[in-house]
Amino acid sequence: ETYKFYLTLAGSSDVAYKSEEISFLYTTQYIMVIKENTGPGDSLFMLDKLSKSTQAIEYPDEQSAAEFRVYNGLYQHALLPNFDNEIALHLNGVDDNAEVSALAQGSFSASLSQPFGDYSMNITNGEQGNILAKNLLLTLSANSDKSVFFYLTEVEEDEGDDDSENEITLYVNSLVTDNSNRISLYDHQIKVINLINDYSGVSVYFVRSNETISST
Fold it and tell me: Which tens digit of pLDDT belongs to each residue from 55-113?
């Protein structure tokens, strides 16, 4: 069957947590674990479903808010003649109140709390307001924590004429990653993103203080 779980504090009838619909597909033994919410949502609780055949599945409060931050990986380019190294982020259309304004090149914004859902991201050129990109998708699930990287890509457009040079088109792209809110003394999750156009691949070394690159 499919069930919803509700949690209240002891002696209270106020709902402190409500899960989404959770399916139990097999007649077997499950363990439900109540734990502290380490994500960005307001709920105090998370619920884990454990079984013998699958990994733990997390269920946040279905109404939990989400959180995200953005990174300005754009740079000055001949095809962006008026770019001043700063961007502004607008959600669901460009208006006078940007969610992030004057974000400098190579910088992260502060984390922003938003209700879960789908959003259209629109990027403008700092204070000037020229639109650099529009309708980039951002999906925020309940209690999620994400980072959004904005960067440039050059694409050679084939003109279909052997006598003419192919035209270069510049695009503003977005890359969305999940941030981990796990609390662990023993292991950590690290993601590395290469936004350097001049290098298609880079090697990254994590070197302890008593080691060298050759020994790691």
Answer: 889 999 999 999 999 999 999 888 888 889 999 999 999 888 899 999 999 999 999 99
The set of residues, in sequence order, having a beta carbon less than 8 Å from that of 44 and lying 6+ positions away, is: 16, 17, 36, 37
Handedness of CA 80, 83, 86, 91 (dihedral sign): negative
Cβ pair 172, 131 in contact under 8 A: no
Using H for helix, E for strand and C for coil, what is the string for the chain? Answer: CEECCEEECCCCCCEEEECCCEECCCCCCCEEEEEECCCCCCCCEEEEEECCCCCCEEECCCCCCEEEEEEECCCCECCECCCCCEEEEEECCCCCCCCEEEEECCCECCCEEECCEEEEEEEECHHHCCEEEEEEEEEECCCCEEEEEEEEEEEEECCCCCCCCCEEEEEEEEEEEECCCCCCCCCCCCCCCCCCCCCCCCCCCCCCCCCCHHHC
Count of Cβ atoms closer than 10 Å to residue 74 Cβ? 25
Q: How far apart are CA 132 and CA 40, in angstroms?
A: 30
Query: Residue with structure tokens 């779980």?
Result: 5
